[in-house]
Structure formats: C-alpha cells, structure tokens
Design goal:
With 99 residues, the protein is mainly alpha-helical. Helix content is 40%, strand content 4%.
Length: 99
C-alpha cells in the first residue's frame, strides 16, 4: 500500500510531531513496509487454530489474593509533590485551546 504525503502529514498532526522532509520520507517507507508485513500475516490460513494468549503451555504463578492493610490517605498525599483537598494535584495534560 502506497502512502502519500497527506497520509504522513495527517499522522504527524495526530502524533503532534513535526518532521523534516528526510524524516517524513523515512517514516513513509517504514510504514509501507509495516503495512505490507501485516498484509502478509493476514494471508496466513489460521482456520482450525485455536486462539491462545500464550504460545506454549503456561500456568501462571499467581500470589494469593489476600486482603492487606493499605496506606493512609494522609501518608500517601504527604509523599506527593502537590495535593489539594485530599486529592493529587497535577498540571493539565490538554490545554483548553486544544479541545
């Protein structure tokens, strides 16, 4: 599948990155190779093969699910860089003008 410049520029905007022409061309080539590989995988006949989460036999080694005492809220908040009204205070991730 051939990607055109507008496809790559659209991905740039989605990823919020700015690429130079050389990097944009390299990305386009890499994405085309990835898409071709996925197409190759899609052509593999998997009828009759049971989907599995793991390739081999796997028995998870899980710990006992036991109730244990948790930390007090004040202790946790005391270790945070900033808190307000009993909650963690963090800077905004998305600015209002980006919505």
């Amino acid at each position: 599948m051939a990607l055109n410049d507008s496809d790559v520029q659209h991905l740039e905007r989605l990823a919020r990155v700015k690429l130079n022409d050389q990097s944009r061309e390299r990305l386009r080539e890499q994405l085309e190779r990835i898409i071709e590989f996925v197409k190759q995988l899609q052509r593999i006949d998997t009828h009759g093969i049971v989907p599995r989460a793991h390739v081999g036999e796997f028995e998870p080694n899980l710990r006992e699910d036991a109730v244990k005492p948790c930390l007090e809220r004040e202790e946790v908040l005391a270790a945070s860089p900033q808190n307000q009204n009993g909650f963690f205070s963090v800077p905004p991730v998305i600015e209002a003008d980006e919505l």
